[in-house]
Amino acid sequence: MLAVHGEIPPFDAAIFADTGWEPAAVYAHLTRLKSIATAARIPVIRVSAGNIRRDALNPAHRFASMPLFTLGPAGERGMARHQCTNEYKIRPIKAEVRRRLGYPHPKRVPAGLVAEMAIGISVEEIHRARDADVAYMRNVFPLLDLGWRRDDCLAYLERHGVTGVGKSSCVGCPYHDDGFWSRLKTDSPAEWVDAVTFDAAIRHGCAGAAPAGQPLRGRFFLHRQRVPLEQVVLRPRDMADETPGCGPWTCPHTDNGTAGERIEPAGVRDAP
């Protein structure tokens, strides 16, 4: 919205990495953003590595591990490896950046050819601001330059008629807090049933996670209580204490993130 209204430099494109399993409210907001951005001649590009829900239940698909909660045969508690952010968000964005620069993998991007990536991290999440891990991208943080916090972002959006913005995250992300699960159960019963069904389906591991179809030891769950999702006693906290949503570059939970995040495509500018 800042770029659309000329308050920061415009973008050549905005990129949204779609896992295929976002809440319906997120897709509705993406459609709204696309209409606003297109009118300002900023194309919104949707990239994808597949549908994470469908892939997890497909035994023929190479599975990128989700951070499922585990319960071992003797009651050992742990978490599965976390590979989904890299597989379904970071890699597709990098592939699109390379394509737009004219050097898709495996072509080598010439030194000095750089895409400037504007990432919507606000002051509460400043610990997540970091340099890109590849030379052909340079990360910038317009909200930090403005000194904006989450409330500033919400107020600005509301002034421009954009309200009801939800967090970007998979419906069945194990990092959801009880506030999310409670709202999903109450406000989106079909998506709640979808998550409950998925939770039951991965009880003995995702279909493609075990080599040669051998069963994995222990059981797997979406909720940290390590009981079937439909049996969880939900204890929502205050909205201010909620866990973050999923960012376009890294998982805020593995970055020790503490602030809620709103869906925001990554803005891209070519900067040779």
Kindly summarize this structure in a few lines.
This protein has 272 residues and is of the alpha/beta class.
SSE string, helices as H and strands as E? EHEHEEHEEHHHHEE
Structural class: alpha/beta
Mean pLDDT value? 87
Major sheet summary line = 5 strands, mixed
Q: How many individual helices?
A: 7
Number of strands: 8
How large, in whole angstroms, is the Cα Rg? 19 Å
Strand content: 5-15%
How far from one another are the termini?
25 Å
Helix content: 25-40%
Low-confidence sequence ranges? 256-264
Strand order of the largest sheet: 2-1-8-5-6
Sum up the overall morphology in one term: globular
3D structure, described in words:
With 272 residues, the protein is of the alpha/beta class. Helix content is 28%, strand content 11%. The chain has helices at 24-39, 52-56, 84-101, 142-146, 150-159, 178-187, 189-201; strands spanning 13-17, 44-47, 69-71, 77-79, 115-118, 137-140, 219-221, 266-270. The strands form two sheets. It has a five-stranded mixed β-sheet with strand order 2-1-8-5-6. Strands 4-3-7 form a three-stranded antiparallel β-sheet, with no helix packed on it. β1, α1 (24-39) and β2 (44-47) form a beta-alpha-beta unit. α6 packs across α7 (189-201). It is globular and about 55 Å long. Mean pLDDT is 87; it is low at 256-264.
